[in-house]
């Protein structure tokens, strides 16, 4: 029982990180139909920027803010340089383009920060234990901040004019242009959102899961799987998908084999896509964002 | 003139659809453009609202040369386009659809937005009880009303509509066209593209008949309805038509691939191709 | 309702007949350059060349997958590793000799690809790419976890190949051993691209639903290409294992998959030889960057060359999406001087004036007139809360024309889509010539002897008119992937297919347009091409969705005559049509749909006077246009 609780808790905090990455996929995909393969690199880059900022003597909070802002900037620049100039964005083109950015960012991180994996200083070091379940303060921070960020993103899409205009672009691009919404601006905003939430995921996860130039690959993949579980077009679905994936992974690692941990996500992905392409939480295609 | 189009040419890639269209609409005038499938009516509206590039000719909106404006800028300048198939935002509520209709006026006075909304509600009282409902759950007629109301929220000078009657029961067609008549009486300029010539003739001040990318006839509805070319040729369904590149939405027409012309009208697609 | 329009996968460097001839020249040039390299280059350059040749095979497989199936795999290195590991295990643990081991290694990889492909290829676009990426990760994990495979350190001691007492030890020797393998791979790939299979896959890329309606089993072909692509990767893997002598989990690494992708993209996915050119270019770049970057940035370690890959991938996609192949064909075209195609857009089609009742395309074995062919029972489709088609029944017999009419949005096209298998019905059954077809793919419908055309044309835009019609002969020819690869048995069949397609085009007055790109034709002719393509299937039942729409008066009359002649030839025809006048004059029976419900079924005369029909068209306004059409057409 204690084992189960321990695993569930670990799974939830891991899943919260996936959820944030997944929100980034959803934000971009709904507006421009692009699957951003560099989404995981956003998280890795934020982790590394924060680590090196702390290393050079910046206070932790300032380092975190610096990391999030600079990664958001990277995402925006990426949109302008790589997505915006392409007239005919097809699936294949968008995959190769974002793969190119992902590869370039990875190499850049390797050149700048070297090959070693490191962990950021936790927001609050240490932990405590309740009923035999040991809990790190950082895990609580992950859950808290991921929860707040998810709610904020949800509120943005549901309640603000800017958020609604992004949904309009996602649902009826032609009509959105006719009412005066600029699709290129919408695409830029969606990358800004994706960069920001990806970066937050990166700095939250780094103290526990460590960050290296390569860690964006699996994080991005898991985020994509989470987003897909939620139907790829819904913030709520992405969050639920992330939590579910995190829990399933830790349960697999705990009860079956640690080695199989990474296989769970892809088995789940294939099963869900073959059986329920709209995602397991999606009711229908009409519930967007 | 609220809207003045001179020698307009436009098309899809290598496929020219419009070959020099002249069209004008004075303030408070309702101009109907009729024609068979493939005459180029939808292409005309898409070119007017900036969805398609104009290859030659000019468009003036209330005296301003708006040729080459994109749809966002045109919407700000005062042209609202109620598209074929309505294209409401399905998962957003009716109220949110209206709010987004006023997107270009979001920095304008709130009183003007409220006024536009009240007018739209007065025009289509059926929408009032459905404000919180998702637009995708409305019936076809209600969606059409919402699409028009959304267009009005932009507080336009000119409203252009693409086949508002498509797929609607005759009673609803009557309701919608009488609303258009009312808007005209309130001083709005309207251009309505229609296949349903009878409905259009009933309210229009002037009618242009298009065929194969040209305006072939123009005049007041009373005179035109007795013209044998209109009653015999068009209403009988045998109006000669060629290269129809009308209804192809841009998203399905990646550059380089000549847009495959399609026929049939919007509602068929809206309801059957979901 | 009205979701995001489906984004089409691109056809990078679509194949027209012209660019294919370019391929032969391209392959020849590449072959010469490959053979010339050992004569002029130093040993270290040749060493790079060995890797380029090895990777070229894997990239070639990927290029086939992308060019033919329009799918991108980010897990090509996974199959590369499976091939390499199998070879290593067989050679080191079971002491097989290299050649038989490689045969088994390729077979094992193909089997793995089949098992992976069957679920994955049901996915499209993004999903497939990410799922294959996941597959690559899984292979790495499994290799790392498996003690049998040597875990992280891998398998050592794979010897260089020996043949006829000769050990292929030096880079030059190994290079020269690989050149014929790569050339063979190119030759097979080119044959497949040009074959019936390649043509069908090209059609699937242009319009899957149309290709399916002509009997092309898109899923099956995609699986075949996927397996083939894995086979290429595994050949590369075995060559890699022998050359390096050691194989470890890095062989399945994601960066390697990215490298393969870059090679294919750089060379130009639409071309066969492009992958080889891309492989040499990327390997050269890789080698150069590995040397250059640590010099510029002291302390840089690891896979720093990735930065070049990333930049190159992105810039190619933005500025040169067709890769180097695009530069090459562009240069050739400029040298040749471009000859613009004649644009006779206003011209109308004139068929030979033949009496209305002369049978067309009658053939042995066609069901006798009056035999029930298509039976539709209780067909229903609901979209969310809307019932588009409600409990629809229809029987169609050989040798009759049945029309389906109704106001806009009545559900005609939905009914069509369900009957032809493009849309799965909510309820009801469809039987075509004894085969239950509802909810199955359109190619099942086609196999049962029925096909359709589309309201919004679904021409194969990257093919010529002839190519379009030849796809229609898909079910009337049989050469498969293997036969196509080896050319010999397929060639005669190809000629027969081309001949019959040309005959059909002549019959429909399209003979002169046969070698033009179908997309360049004016609209009326594209409709005819679609009909010709459907007729090439030699169907017993033909479904036409608004065939008259957008045609001129003359073209309509010609089309009506054609349909009458087909009926006289014993074909059953169902058409959805807006043009009520034309329908009433042409059809034997008319079904009328309103709001998804069949409100009338009978002869044109019966329908014309049916009060429900009149009401449906009239509504409350007696002078409604369409109603007037019904009334006018009904007047003697």
Automatic annotation (TrEMBL), chain A:
<keyword id="KW-0812">Transmembrane</keyword>
<feature type="transmembrane region" description="Helical">
    <location>
        <begin position="44"/>
        <end position="77"/>
    </location>
</feature>
<dbReference type="InterPro" id="IPR052157">
    <property type="entry name" value="BCAA_transport_permease"/>
</dbReference>
<keyword id="KW-0472">Membrane</keyword>
<keyword id="KW-0813">Transport</keyword>
<keyword id="KW-1003">Cell membrane</keyword>
<dbReference type="Pfam" id="PF02653">
    <property type="entry name" value="BPD_transp_2"/>
</dbReference>
<keyword id="KW-0029">Amino-acid transport</keyword>
<feature type="transmembrane region" description="Helical">
    <location>
        <begin position="186"/>
        <end position="209"/>
    </location>
</feature>
<protein>
    <recommendedName>
        <fullName>ABC transporter permease</fullName>
    </recommendedName>
</protein>
<dbReference type="GO" id="GO:0022857">
    <property type="term" value="F:transmembrane transporter activity"/>
</dbReference>
<feature type="transmembrane region" description="Helical">
    <location>
        <begin position="140"/>
        <end position="157"/>
    </location>
</feature>
<comment type="similarity">
    <text>Belongs to the binding-protein-dependent transport system permease family. LivHM subfamily.</text>
</comment>
<dbReference type="GO" id="GO:0006865">
    <property type="term" value="P:amino acid transport"/>
</dbReference>
<feature type="transmembrane region" description="Helical">
    <location>
        <begin position="16"/>
        <end position="38"/>
    </location>
</feature>
<dbReference type="InterPro" id="IPR001851">
    <property type="entry name" value="ABC_transp_permease"/>
</dbReference>
<feature type="transmembrane region" description="Helical">
    <location>
        <begin position="263"/>
        <end position="282"/>
    </location>
</feature>
<dbReference type="GO" id="GO:0005886">
    <property type="term" value="C:plasma membrane"/>
</dbReference>
<feature type="transmembrane region" description="Helical">
    <location>
        <begin position="229"/>
        <end position="251"/>
    </location>
</feature>
<feature type="transmembrane region" description="Helical">
    <location>
        <begin position="89"/>
        <end position="113"/>
    </location>
</feature>
<keyword id="KW-1133">Transmembrane helix</keyword>
């Amino acid at each position: 029982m204690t084992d189960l609780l321990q695993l569930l808790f670990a799974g939830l905090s891991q899943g919260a990180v996936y959820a944030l990455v997944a929100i980034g996929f959803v934000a971009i995909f709904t507006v421009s139909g692009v699957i951003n393969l560099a989404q995981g690199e956003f998280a890795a880059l934020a982790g590394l920027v924060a680590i090196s900022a702390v290393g050079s003597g910046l206070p932790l909070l300032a380092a975190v803010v610096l990391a999030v802002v600079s990664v958001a900037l990277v995402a925006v620049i990426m949109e302008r340089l790589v997505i915006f100039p392409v007239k005919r964005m097809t699936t294949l083109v968008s995959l190769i383009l974002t793969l190119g950015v992902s590869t370039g960012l990875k190499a850049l991180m390797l050149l700048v920060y070297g090959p070693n994996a490191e962990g950021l200083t936790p927001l609050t070091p240490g932990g405590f234990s309740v009923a035999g379940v040991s809990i790190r303060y950082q895990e609580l921070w992950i859950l808290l901040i991921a929860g707040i960020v998810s709610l904020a993103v949800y509120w943005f899409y549901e309640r603000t004019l800017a958020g609604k205009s992004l949904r309009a672009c996602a649902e009826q691009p032609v009509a959105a242009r006719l009412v005066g919404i600029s699709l290129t601006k919408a695409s830029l905003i969606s990358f800004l959102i994706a960069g920001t939430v990806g970066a937050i995921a990166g700095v939250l996860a780094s103290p526990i899961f460590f960050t290296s130039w390569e860690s964006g690959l699996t994080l991005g993949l898991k985020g994509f799987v989470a987003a897909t579980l939620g139907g790829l077009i819904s913030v709520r679905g992405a969050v639920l998908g992330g939590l579910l994936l995190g829990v399933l992974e830790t349960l697999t690692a705990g009860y079956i084999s640690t080695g199989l941990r990474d296989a769970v996500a892809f088995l789940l992905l294939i099963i869900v896509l073959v059986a329920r392409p709209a995602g397991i939480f999606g009711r229908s295609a009409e519930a967007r964002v | 003139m609220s809207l003045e189009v001179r020698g307009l040419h436009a098309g899809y890639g290598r496929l020219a659809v419009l070959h020099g269209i002249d069209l004008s609409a004075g303030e408070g005038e309702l101009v109907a453009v009729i024609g068979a499938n493939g005459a180029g009516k939808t292409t005309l509206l898409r070119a007017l609202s900036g969805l398609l590039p104009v290859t030659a000719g000019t468009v003036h909106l209330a005296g301003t040369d708006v040729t080459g404006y994109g749809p966002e800028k045109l919407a700000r300048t005062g042209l609202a386009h109620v598209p074929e198939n309505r294209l409401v935002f399905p998962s957003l509520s009716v109220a949110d659809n209206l709010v987004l209709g006023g997107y270009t006026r979001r920095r304008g006075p709130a009183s003007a937005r409220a006024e536009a909304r009240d007018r739209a509600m007065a025009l289509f009282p059926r929408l009032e009880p459905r404000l919180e409902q998702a637009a995708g759950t409305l019936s076809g007629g209600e969606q059409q009303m919402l699409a028009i109301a959304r267009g009005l929220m932009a507080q336009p000078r000119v409203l252009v509509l693409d086949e508002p009657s498509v797929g609607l029961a005759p009673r609803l067609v009557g309701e919608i066209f009488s609303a258009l008549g009312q808007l005209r009486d309130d001083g709005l300029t309207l251009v309505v593209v229609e296949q349903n010539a009878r409905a259009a003739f009933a309210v229009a001040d002037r009618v242009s008949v298009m065929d194969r990318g040209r305006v072939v006839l123009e005049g007041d509805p009373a005179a035109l309805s007795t013209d044998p070319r209109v009653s015999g040729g068009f209403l009988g369904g045998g109006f000669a038509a060629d290269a129809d590149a009308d209804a192809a939405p841009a998203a399905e027409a990646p550059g380089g691939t000549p847009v495959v012309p399609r026929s049939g009208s919007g509602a068929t697609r809206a309801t059957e191709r979901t | 309702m009205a979701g995001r329009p489906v984004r089409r996968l691109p056809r990078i460097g679509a194949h027209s007949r012209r660019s294919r001839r370019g391929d032969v020249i391209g392959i020849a040039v590449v072959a010469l350059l490959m053979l010339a390299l050992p004569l002029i280059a130093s040993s270290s350059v040749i060493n790079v060349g060995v890797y380029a040749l090895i990777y070229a095979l894997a990239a070639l497989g990927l290029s086939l997958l992308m060019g033919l199936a329009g799918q991108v795999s980010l897990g090509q290195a996974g199959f590369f590793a499976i091939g390499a590991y199998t070879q290593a295990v067989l050679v080191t643990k079971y002491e097989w000799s290299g050649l038989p081991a490689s045969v088994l290694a390729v077979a094992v990889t193909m089997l793995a690809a089949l098992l992976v492909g069957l679920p994955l290829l049901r996915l499209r676009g993004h999903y497939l790419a990410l799922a294959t990426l996941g597959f690559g990760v899984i292979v790495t994990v499994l290799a790392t976890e498996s003690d049998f495979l040597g875990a992280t350190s891998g398998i050592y001691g794979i010897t260089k190949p020996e043949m006829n007492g000769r050990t292929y030890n030096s880079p030059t020797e190994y290079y020269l051993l690989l050149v014929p393998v790569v050339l063979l791979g190119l030759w097979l790939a080119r044959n497949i691209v040009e074959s019936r299979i390649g043509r069908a896959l090209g059609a699937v890329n242009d319009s899957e639903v149309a290709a399916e309606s002509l009997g092309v089993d898109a899923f099956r072909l995609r699986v075949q290409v996927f397996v083939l692509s894995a086979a290429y990767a595994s050949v590369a893997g075995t060559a890699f294992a022998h050359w390096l002598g050691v194989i470890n989990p890095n062989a399945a690494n994601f960066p390697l998959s990215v490298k393969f992708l870059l090679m294919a993209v750089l060379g130009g996915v639409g071309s066969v030889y492009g992958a080889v050119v891309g492989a040499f270019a990327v390997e050269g770049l890789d080698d150069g960057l590995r040397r250059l970057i640590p010099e510029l940035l002291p302390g840089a370690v690891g896979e720093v060359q990735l930065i070049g890959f990333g930049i190159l991938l992105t810039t190619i996609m933005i500025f040169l999406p067709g890769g180097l192949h695009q530069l090459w064909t562009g240069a050739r075209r400029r040298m040749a001087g471009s000859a613009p195609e004649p644009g006779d857009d206003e011209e109308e089609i004139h068929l030979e004036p033949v009496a209305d009742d002369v049978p067309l395309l009658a053939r042995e074995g066609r069901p006798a007139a009056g035999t029930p062919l298509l039976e539709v029972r209780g067909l229903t489709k609901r979209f969310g809360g809307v019932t588009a088609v409600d409990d629809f029944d229809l029987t169609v017999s050989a040798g009759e024309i049945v029309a389906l009419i109704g106001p806009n949005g009545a559900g005609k096209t939905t009914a069509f889509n369900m009957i032809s298998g493009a849309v799965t019905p909510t309820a009801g059954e469809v039987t075509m010539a004894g085969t239950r077809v509802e909810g199955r793919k359109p190619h099942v419908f086609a196999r049962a002897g029925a096909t359709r055309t589309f309201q919004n044309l679904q021409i194969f835009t990257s093919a010529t008119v002839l190519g379009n019609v030849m796809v229609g002969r898909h079910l009337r020819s049989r050469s498969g992937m293997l036969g196509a690869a080896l050319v010999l048995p397929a060639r005669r069949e190809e000629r027969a297919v081309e001949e019959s397609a040309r005959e059909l085009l002549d019959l429909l007055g399209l003979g002169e347009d046969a070698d033009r790109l179908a997309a360049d034709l004016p609209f009326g002719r594209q409709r005819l091409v679609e009909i010709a393509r459907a007729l090439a299937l030699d169907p017993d039942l033909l479904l036409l969705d608004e065939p008259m729409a957008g045609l001129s008066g003359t073209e309509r009359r010609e089309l009506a005559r054609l349909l009458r002649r087909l009926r006289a030839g014993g074909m059953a025809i169902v058409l959805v049509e807006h043009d009520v006048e034309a329908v009433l004059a042409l059809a034997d029976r008319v079904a009328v749909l309103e709001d998804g419900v069949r409100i009338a079924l009978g002869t044109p005369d019966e329908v014309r006077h049916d009060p429900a029909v009149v009401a449906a068209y009239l509504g409350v306004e007696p002078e409604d246009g369409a109603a007037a059409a019904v009334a006018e057409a009904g007047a003697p």
